[in-house]
Amino acid sequence: MINNKYFNRFTNSIEKIELPKKFTFPFYYEPHVLSKIAVKELQDQLVISENWEHDFGLNSDNGIGKMFGVLVIQNKQNEIGYLTAYSGKLNGKNDGVNFVPPVFDIFAKNGFFQKEEKEISNISLAINKHENNPVLLKLISAFDKLEEEKKQVLNIEKKKLQLRRKERRAKRKELINNKIENPCKSVQSVSESLHDKFYYKELSIYWEEKITKQKVKITVLNDSINKLKTERKERSEKLHQDIFDNYHFLNSEKSSKSLNKIFQNTNRKPIAGTGNCAAPKLLQYAFQNDLQPIAMAEFWWGKPLKNEVRKHKNYYPACNGKCKPILNYMLNGLDMDENPILINLAKNKKIEILFEDNHLLVINKPAELLSIPGKNIQDSVLFRMQQKYPDLESPFIVHRLDMSTSGIMLIAKSKRVHKKLQSQFINRTIKKQYVAVLNGIIKNKKGTIELPLITDYKDTPKQKVCFENGKKAKTTYKVVEIKDNKTKVYFYPVTGRTHQLRVHAAHYLGLNLPILGDDLYGIKNDRLYLHACSLEFIHPIKKEILLIKCDVNF
Fold first, then answer.
1. If 0-12 CB within 10 Å is exposed, 13-18 middle and 19+ buried, where does residue 333 land?
2. 125 conformational bin, left if phi > 0, alpha if psi -120 to 50, beta if neither
3. Which residue among the candidates 402, 456, 459, 518 is catalytic per the annotation?
């Protein structure tokens, strides 16, 4: 019997809409029309609901958005409806009204998580109490003062030694200049030198022993703190393992497997939050209640995250890091849409040669052609060049363009030329220009974006902004034209990070407008409207400046 609390009937008429023949491929998709209707109905409820305590940041600067999902399903009576879910927690809870429950409720009353979390919390309180013990703080303060005093005393003594050494050298020089031989003076000088070294060494030992005694007192108290920290770490790690062992996921054949078992053959361990995303919750409830999955979609609601690119109401695929192993297991047996990544979209597209001599090539790469062979598709610029120039040792790709980006690429015909051209990229003497169309209007006519980037290892191949560990990434831009609520810009990348222009355009700290057709950071279109249109470099052999331009029709 379906719990009406979770089974949502469409309020809009769907009678004339044909059901999809296959289930949504969750890692790259265009939502089916039924999914879009379900999403619209859910978003309407999110707008009018008065039950939310969570601040989504739509009308404030402090809130944060959340990922929601819908799963269109068919019950045993052939009724079509949909389930809804959100990722993680809201208002400190993971079971909201009308949203499917979590796969495993770690917040269950009197459950092992609550009990163990309380014990770990008590250990943290004990650590805090020990660390703020007045006796320990007093010892640490005294230790710091001794360290400073030692440093000052030894520095003063070192300066005295240096001064006496200088005086002895001056006296020896005077004796030599006056041709006065005085063995006694020479012996006395050596004796004074040895005495100074011995005294400084003894003084250092004295202070080291004094500090060590103080350090021992601190170590005794710190040992108990370190034992508590070790216990806390071990219990926390075990708690995570226990949690992951209690997450059991079903697939379409109602076979069950724990989260730890699912990740066993991935060479990775599940991280915090794994299993709490919307997609696994939706599928779990469907399989538990004999509901046939028809189509699904996930979307972002609210203010974007600081590091990742998230746009209000935009659709997003399931993440590769946390969800991919789980969904690969859960969807096993379902007839799914083909993985678009396995389709060679550039099969019939040709490479245009813009410049060629005995040393190098400049080409116009079509959109959707890989620069180098991928895991599943061999067809690429490198592969085609190897076929075109079989007598070369190998054509050498000097730099790459994203698969979806079209435009100018530089290819060397020898290792020597490749090395010389690469050094120009490394030294940033090559001038690059890209043209792009942004999905909206920007205020400033020109400017500079500096947002450091790092690979989002939870969701490769995406990149994210990271001010702590990201690599420097700098882009200047200039507006070319504004038309039909779109902005055409020239990008001038100073650095060459992966997806740099795409993230700098889409991130709210950048231009806050995705490039038109960006299926990773924006909304899919007929293509990614990004093109490398100009490249200026010094010919590595002829030493001439070459300026290559390549226009695009957008």
1. exposed
2. alpha
3. 402
Residue 90 CB coordination number (10 Å):
17
Locate tokens 């079903």: which residue? 250
80-86 and 486-493 strand pairing: unpaired
What pLDDT, in 10s, does the model give residues 305-348?
A: 888 899 999 999 999 889 999 999 999 989 999 998 889 999 99
Structure tokens, 53? 């305590």
Confidence of residue 1 (pLDDT cuts 50, 70, 90): very low
pTM across the whole model: 0.80
DSSP 263-296: TTTTTS-PPTTTT-SHHHHHHHHHHHTT-EEEEE
Helices (H), 62-182: 112-131, 134-177
Q: Which residue has the tokens 């005794």?
A: 220
For 413-449, the pLDDT digits (tens) are 999 999 999 999 999 999 999 999 999 999 899 999 9
Task: Note the pLDDT tens digit of each residue in 267-315.
Answer: 888 888 899 999 999 999 999 999 999 999 999 999 988 888 999 999 9
Q: Could you state, in order of their start, the residue ranges of all structural domains in the chain? A: 8-104+247-341, 129-242, 344-549
Where are the strands (E) in 420-506, listed by range?
A: 431-438, 446-450, 453-455, 463-465, 474-483, 486-493
Question: What is the rounded CA–CA span in Å between residue 286 and residue 3?
Answer: 11
- Classify residue 473 by its DSSP letter: -
CA 535 remoteness from chain centre: 29
**pLDDT tens column, 196-236:** 888 889 999 999 999 999 999 999 999 999 999 999 999 99
Counting DSSP H helices and E strands in the chain, the numbers are 10, 18
204 is written with which tokens? 């250092």
Q: Measure Cα distances from 361 to 422, 530, 546 in Å.
A: 14, 21, 12
Q: How many CB atoms lie within 10 A of CB 442?
A: 18
Beta-carbon contacts of 199 under 8 Å, excluding residues fewer than 6 positions away, are 157
Whether 67 contacts 298, CB under 8 Å: yes
Q: Which residues pair with 434 in a beta bridge?
A: 491, 532
d(CA 351, CA 365): 6
Q: What gap in Å lies between CA 199 and CA 321, rounded to an integer?
A: 62
Q: Which phi and psi angles does 399 have, rounded to 5°?
A: -150, 165
CA 386 to chain centre: 34
| Positive/negative CA dihedral, 437, 441, 446, 449 | negative
Pairing relationship of beta strands 406-412 and 530-538 according to DSSP bridges: parallel
| Residue 402 designated active-site | yes
Compute the Cα dihedral for 481, 482, 486, 491 and give only its sign: positive
Tallying the residues shown for the chain, one arrives at 554
Chain-centroid distance, C-alpha 125: 33
Query: What is the C-alpha separation between 220 and 143, in angstroms, rounded?
Result: 14
Domain 344-549 architecture: 2-Layer Sandwich (3.30)
Nearest to residue 511, comparing CAs of 465, 458, 554, 472? 465
